[in-house]
Amino acid sequence: GETLASTYNIVTGIGGCIVVPTFACACDYFNTGSTALLAGMVMLSGLTCVSVVQKTWFAQVLTCVANALLYTLAGTYFTRYFMAFAGPVRLGSVAGLCNTYTSVLYLV
């Protein structure tokens, strides 16, 4: 448990500072926008679904890494592409609605 918690924290920090911003800049550079970010989220979600049921230590670490990157990527996706269209007046409502949808999807 201690190793997975440390791995999650380290990957979240590295993902949030280096990996996800670099991926977002590459998406903008190649004009793929939200499509590539959404594809990355779907790929990480699929990887989590496949690896979480495995009984090996490597699979659990892989699940932890995929989830950490998924959550940082999802935050970037929501902030950059959903909130940009909400405007300052509806920002709180749109953020709450997106977080509600995300929470429901994670529960399913």
* Biggest β-sheet description: none
Could you say which overall geometry the principal axes of the C-alpha atoms support? globular
Structural class: mainly alpha
Count of separate DSSP helical elements: 4
Mean pLDDT: 85
How much of the sequence lies in strands comes to under 5%
Q: Stretches where pLDDT falls below 50 for ≥5 residues?
A: none
The count of β-strands is 0
Multimerization status: single chain
Helix content: over 70%
Distance between the termini: 24 Å
What sequence of helices (H) and strands (E) makes up the elements? HHHH
Overall radius of gyration: 15 Å
Can you give a write-up of this model?
By secondary structure, this protein is mainly alpha-helical. The chain has four helices and no strands. It has helices at 2-29, 33-51, 57-86, 91-107. It is globular. The model has no long low-confidence stretch (mean pLDDT 85).
